[in-house]
């Protein structure tokens, strides 16, 4: 809890606090390590964890929110520290995007791959293990896209955002219902 006696209107103290110059180098190193580690952890957790936002987007929202909140509420956090952290987070985000665009090898590590999960009305089960998704999740995503029958789907791609892009046949055959009440029948047919 913050004590009211901690507040005093001393502009230089509010801006710089009682910190020495080495604190700013330490902050730079801390921000770099935390940002890099968190991006890798979010990537490891998977697409479904971050939803429609990318891992870097989630990270920037959380990190900047914390820096802004601490600086606005705690008098022991000088504004210069918060400004440096926010600037470093923004610079890290720009660098992360730049490196991802310029270097395909880095992008493969930091950005999830787009996976084809359905082709010609059939599930591509071998791709499910890459992003740790199961067929029930695929069925759910297909139903969310308005699909009732697996045979309606020409192609379905699991995007970097965790969303499913679905391309339907113009005149599909209506077989292999993916509605919950019909899934047991679909399972029996696929096992034959």
TrEMBL record:
Main localization category: membrane
TM spans (from-to): 22-42, 49-69, 81-99
Keyword annotations of the record: Cell membrane, Membrane, Transmembrane, Transmembrane helix
Gene Ontology cellular-component terms listed: plasma membrane
Gene3D superfamilies per the UniProt record, alphabetical: bsu07140 like domains
Keyword Transmembrane: yes
Phylogenetic lineage: Bacteria, Pseudomonadati, Bacteroidota, Flavobacteriia, Flavobacteriales
Domain YetF C-terminal: 103-174
Protein name: YetF C-terminal domain-containing protein
Protein location: Cell membrane
Domain of life (superkingdom): Bacteria
Family the UniProt entry places it in: Belongs to the UPF0702 family.
Membrane topology: Multi-pass membrane protein
């Amino acid at each position: 809890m913050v004590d009211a006696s901690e507040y005093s209107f001393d502009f230089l103290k509010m801006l710089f606090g009682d910190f020495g110059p080495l604190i700013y180098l330490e902050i730079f190193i801390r921000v770099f390590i935390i940002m890099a580690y968190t991006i890798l952890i979010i990537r490891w957790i998977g697409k479904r964890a971050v939803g429609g936002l990318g891992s870097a987007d989630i990270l920037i929202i959380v990190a900047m929110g914390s820096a802004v909140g601490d600086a606005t509420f705690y008098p022991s956090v000088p504004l210069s520290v918060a400004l440096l952290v926010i600037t470093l987070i923004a610079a890290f985000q720009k660098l992360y995007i730049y490196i991802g665009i310029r270097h395909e090898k880095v992008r493969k590590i930091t950005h999830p791959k787009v996976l084809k999960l359905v082709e010609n009305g059939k599930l591509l089960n071998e791709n499910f293990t890459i992003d740790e998704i199961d067929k029930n999740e695929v069925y759910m995503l297909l139903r969310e896209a308005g699909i009732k029958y697996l045979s309606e789907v020409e192609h379905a791609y699991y995007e970097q955002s965790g969303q499913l892009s679905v391309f339907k046949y113009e005149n599909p055959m209506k077989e292999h219902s993916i509605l919950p009440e019909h899934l047991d029948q679909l399972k029996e047919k696929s096992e034959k």
